[in-house]
DNA sequence: GATGAATGAGCGTTCATTCAT
DNA sequence: CATGAATGAACGCTCATTCAT
């Protein structure tokens, strides 16, 4: 029951309330988990009251759903761009595989939320997110299958499993990657894409 | 599925109370998440009362900690066995990589809990689990490094990253693997170990 | 169902805003009760915004008070007309008793609100309504007493009690009368007036 | 989800907690209405905490349901006793009609709640209460019909309507009867039963 | 060893009302 | 005239934990 947001606040150039709420919720959900984050904490972090939150969002669950919508839209768009590029399939897969790593690292909070809190969505929203996730998976799988068909990738492993293998490592980034660590996002992306392509060598 | 009776069973033939509680908690935590599972649900599922739970466990948190202890112990033991085996390093790594997949699938509930509920542990228990997890990671990494040193594995990718790559896919199993799906645990393990080894080909 | 336009209608042909609000509130209060009806629901049903409601009415409470005012005025007027008619007292009482039944059934929503929501009015409005109600009661009682005095009605029962006996059954209509039931409003009115007159036979 | 209450408190001879809660709720519901009475008020009046209330009752709604259960049971039992008595039908109806007045006056709070708050029950409980109420109505109607059949009562009015006529006045008692008024409960009962019987004279 | 009544703090949510525009 | 964002207080309810028995 998300209400459409048309205008923002005017007080002193601050970001509009719904965006402030979404940002606060994203950070808190990622840090503490969905269940451990109270609505009170969110509104305090955003500097508004509960009433304001429920003016823009139908429920705490809705807030989570919005986060999912944002990250799903972003990733799908980027994947589409790479998959449709005019390049050999091994190049397109490599670029897509590396890009999802970079994008994930740049939005680590969203990713943490994505994989840890999916089951907190109500059944209907859960189903919707799973469907969008599925589309994403299949787009990626199509690339792998294309490469296997034309013979540049080994067909020893089912394409589905290959996709889950790679996404597993992407998902796992939220568990170990630290921005102040030894590797930049681009370096990690390069290595992980490399591992995928090497694993697919015929 | 162990049936070892260690402490005072009162109602002849049933498993002792602490084990019944642990089993009930494991299933419920995996199905609904730690926060969504009430102590009341656990004791009802185990067929005891709250008093009994608090007799054996100091807190709900303790219950979770016990689950972690069990799975960590199990995985460490198995890895140690494979790592110390008398075989070429590529064989030892392959066996270890495949075994963690099988073990994970056989204990999917524990794995779900492991990755989704770590942040529910209190700080000191959290630290303890992370330390044990680290030891496990390093044991595995040592195998990769050994292979790289002796030249049977490519050294293009840092060993740490290789380990996280593989464990990412293992962790991800809880998100997609279904016992009634197309592939058996052994087949999945074979494929994933294969992908790892192929990615490491010099 | 009046279509009298008293104040600034803006959107050609629709009833003015205050009347739309009052009608919406009446229906909702009767269906769900005063407390279960939110101001938001009322304004949505009336097709206006909250600001508009608070422009015309001081509070939600005010809305309820208006409903009371309308029904009280209507019933008092009708009773006065029957009581002052030029006819024998038994005829006048009978007609008045039957008319209040018909009027009540024709405005069942108002009646539901009347008896269920009186205690939701603020103290001074409550007192005011009770006073008007009292006047109505006394007007009716006067008819009974008149008949008792002239001997056409039995004086075995105090007139006050007779009035409450009849009004009890009128009040109760909202609990059981259904427009699609076996009896028309007129038939019910006839029967109830009959019972009253028969009970008063000397 | 009412839990069965097996034992009470031991501190100082006070009534057990569930009974204290029920008594407090009854009084408050009658005085202020169901919606206007907060759970907080109830527990404060009963001298316990919310947790205690929810230990014994599944919901606020449950509390209301218990009140209904008590009054329905009581009235049905009394009606049954009078209806089955060994006496002419006019005597049995008169006694039953008078008794329900006395019982109602003695439990005016319950009656207020009964007629004003029925629609606050959830659909399932509502249906159940309506069914029990229906049984009561039919038992009473059977008495009227019996009298009409044997000719001691006029058959001019449908028996159903006669019953609603009388119950209307009983229901209405909560709106006007005051214990410190001019009439005792027995006197009011006598008069109202009288009116009913006189209305039914052939 | 085990019970279950009771606590107390906190939860997500609702809502009549206000007020700058 | 009318809007709708925002408030602030209250709501019904949950739950891990304690403790007298």
TrEMBL record, chains A, B, C, D:
Residues 38-57 bind DNA. The keyword Phosphoprotein does not apply. SUPFAM superfamilies: Homeodomain-like, Tetracyclin repressor-like, C-terminal domain. Residues 15-75 form the HTH tetR-type domain. Pfam families: TetR_C_24, TetR_N. The keyword Ligase does not apply. It comes from the Bacteria. Gene3D superfamilies: Homeodomain-like, Tetracycline Repressor, domain 2. Keywords: DNA-binding, Repressor, Transcription, Transcription regulation. PANTHER family: HTH-TYPE TRANSCRIPTIONAL REGULATOR RUTR (PTHR30055), HTH-TYPE TRANSCRIPTIONAL REPRESSOR KSTR2 (PTHR30055:SF175). This is TetR/AcrR family transcriptional regulator. It comes from Streptomyces blastmyceticus.
């Amino acid at each position: 029951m998300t209400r459409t947001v048309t205008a923002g606040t005017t007080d002193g150039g601050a970001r509009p309330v719904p965006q402030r709420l979404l940002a606060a919720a994203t950070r808190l959900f990622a840090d503490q988990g969905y269940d451990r984050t109270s609505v009170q904490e969110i509104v305090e972090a955003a500097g508004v009251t509960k009433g304001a939150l429920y003016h823009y969002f139908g429920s705490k669950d809705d807030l989570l759903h919005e986060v999912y919508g944002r990250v799903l839209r972003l990733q799908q768009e980027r994947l589409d761009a790479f998959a449709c590029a005019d390049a050999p399939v091994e190049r397109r897969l490599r670029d897509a595989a590396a890009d999802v790593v970079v994008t994930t690292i740049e939005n680590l909070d969203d990713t943490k939320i994505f994989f840890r809190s999916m089951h907190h969505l109500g059944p209907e929203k859960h189903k919707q997110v799973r469907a969008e996730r599925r589309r994403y998976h299949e787009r990626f799988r199509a690339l792998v299958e294309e490469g296997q068909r034309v013979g540049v990738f080994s067909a020893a492993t089912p394409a589905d499993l290959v996709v889950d293998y790679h996404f597993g490592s992407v998902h796992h980034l939220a568990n170990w990657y630290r921005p102040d660590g030894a590797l930049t996002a681009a370096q990690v992306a390069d290595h992980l894409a490399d591992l995928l392509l090497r694993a697919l060598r015929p």
